[in-house]
């Protein structure tokens, strides 16, 4: 019997092999709260243990993709960490509201399903879930010839966390005098890659030769996965040491920091108080990008910015050690919501 569905471009057997390949990877992220095994119609996550110490439980959710960074991964066969990027973009968003991450679901759409390639992608997603203290409890693999070329795929993800209502982090908690503490990024993370790719293409930049200024190849640096901040933030949340958190994603420092600043206040950021990865100087110079645009597109070396009450700063620094920078403070409004002082 001929397999007409396979002739149409969908290989059911390849899908079954892919599911079998990722089952142990997914299971390694599970905990006692995960009830359903991979393959059911819906994922099951029990809340009995989670709710024990929470008076007013609130679910915090976030969904995202990895943007056009995915195109570089496809072009240069760098699929091993793109799943980690996917998880990071989702979990860092829910961490910014004080959530304790619970679980993650993914979606992968492909032109042609390759079990080995799928295993590599899901392995990155699972690694991200471990770093974010989440269980990977479900997802979807869809083979869609015609919508995607044979070697193309796309990713999206969905993270869910929980927080006691009284501990949700919002701009209402921020006060004049709060100190701004920044956590370093691992590089560009997953924002601004349409501009990154344009600069690389327009200037015919060499991606594979080792560069002293970058301490690696340009390809290695632009494909560095997005940092996940659970290990830094969770100890601070447990001790109620943070008033608000901004995840510095698309829109850069100015737009994202503004999201946690009340209408009557200004976040004053002092340039030069943190170490910027060399990649940002390279992009600025090669692309002839203004500093204003750099600040509105890229994280410029800061993946998280926290507003911290002055009396808590010393304890925050003790917990974080050398993994943070004091970059400014919150003042009464005297201009824009966010000012970067050069």
What is the structure about, briefly put?
Pathway: Purine metabolism; IMP biosynthesis via de novo pathway; 5-amino-1-(5-phospho-D-ribosyl)imidazole from N(2)-formyl-N(1)-(5-phospho-D-ribosyl)glycinamide: step 2/2. The chain has helices at about 5, 10-25, 70-75, 80-95, 115-130, 195-200, 220, 230-240, 250-260, 280-285, 290-295, 315-320, and strands at about 55-65, 100-110, 135-145, 155-165, 180-185, 210, 215, 245, 265-270, 300-310, 325-330, 340.
Layout of helices and strands, plus pairs?
Layout: H1 4-7, H2 12-27, E1 57-64, H3 69-75, H4 82-95, E2 100-110, H5 115-131, E3 135-143, E4 153-164, E5 179-184, H6 193-202, E6 210-211, E7 216-217, H7 218-222, H8 230-238, E8 244-247, H9 252-258, E9 265-270, H10 278-287, H11 291-297, E10 302-308, H12 313-320, E11 325-332, E12 338-341
Parallel strand pairs: 2-3, 9-12
Antiparallel strand pairs: 1-4, 2-4, 5-10, 5-11, 6-7, 8-10, 9-11
Helix pairs in contact: 2-5, 4-5, 9-11
Question: Mind explaining what this structure looks like?
Answer:
It is a single chain. With about 350 residues, this protein is α+β, with helices and mostly antiparallel strands. Helix content is about 35%, strand content about 25%. The strands form three sheets. Strands 8-10-5-11-9-12 form a six-stranded mixed β-sheet, sandwiched between helices. α9 (about 250-260) crosses α11. The longest helix is centred in the middle third of the chain and has 17 residues, at about 115-130. The chain is globular and about 70 Å long. The N and C termini lie far apart (about 70 Å).
């Amino acid at each position: 019997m001929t397999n007409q569905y396979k002739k149409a471009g969908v290989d059911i057997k390849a899908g079954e092999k892919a599911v079998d390949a990722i089952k142990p990877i997914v299971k390694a992220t599970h905990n006692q709260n995960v009830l359903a095994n991979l393959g059911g119609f819906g994922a099951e996550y029990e809340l009995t243990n989670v709710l024990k110490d929470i008076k007013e439980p609130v679910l915090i959710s976030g969904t995202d993709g990895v943007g056009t960074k995915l195109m570089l991964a496809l072009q240069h066969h760098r699929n091993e960490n793109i799943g980690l990027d996917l998880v990071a973009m989702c979990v860092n968003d829910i961490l910014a509201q004080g959530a304790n991450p619970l679980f993650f679901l993914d979606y992968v759409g492909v032109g042609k399903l390759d079990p080995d390639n799928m295993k590599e992608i899901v392995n990155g997603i699972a690694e991200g879930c471990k770093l974010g203290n989440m269980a990977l409890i479900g997802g979807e693999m869809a083979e869609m010839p015609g919508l995607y070329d044979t070697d193309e795929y796309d990713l999206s993800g969905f993270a869910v966390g929980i927080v006691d209502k009284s501990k949700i982090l919002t701009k209402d908690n921020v006060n004049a005098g709060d100190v701004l503490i920044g956590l370093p990024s691992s590089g560009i993370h997953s924002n601004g890659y349409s501009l990154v790719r344009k600069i690389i293409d327009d200037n015919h930049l060499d991606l594979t030769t080792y560069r002293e200024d970058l301490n690696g190849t340009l390809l290695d640096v632009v494909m560095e996965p997005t940092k996940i901040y659970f290990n830094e933030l969770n100890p601070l949340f447990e001790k109620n040491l943070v008033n608000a958190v901004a995840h510095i994603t698309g829109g850069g420092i100015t737009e994202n920091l503004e999201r946690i600043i009340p209408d009557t206040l200004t976040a004053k950021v002092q340039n030069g108080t943190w170490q910027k990865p060399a990649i940002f100087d390279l992009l600025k110079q090669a692309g002839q990008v203004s500093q204003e645009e750099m600040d509105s597109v890229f994280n410029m070396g800061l993946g998280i910015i926290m507003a911290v009450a002055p009396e808590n700063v010393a304890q925050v620094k003790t917990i974080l050690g050398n993994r943070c920078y004091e970059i400014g403070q919150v003042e009464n409004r005297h201009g824009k919501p966010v000012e970067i002082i050069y």
